[in-house]
Amino acid sequence: MPQLNPTPWFPIMMLSWLIFSLIIQPKLLLFTPTNPPSNKTTTTTRSNPWTWPWT
User: pTM of the entire structure?
Assistant: First the structure.
């Protein structure tokens, strides 16, 4: 049963972190969102109270 042999666990873990750090992470850091956030002025909307015709 190969999953019980702990010898290759550390090299496999280090290889996966190396792949993540050198290949995947730079691609994610270069991503620019299509709609960058902008400063918008907040407008307060005035709400009218409901009228209850049956009371």
Answer: 0.46
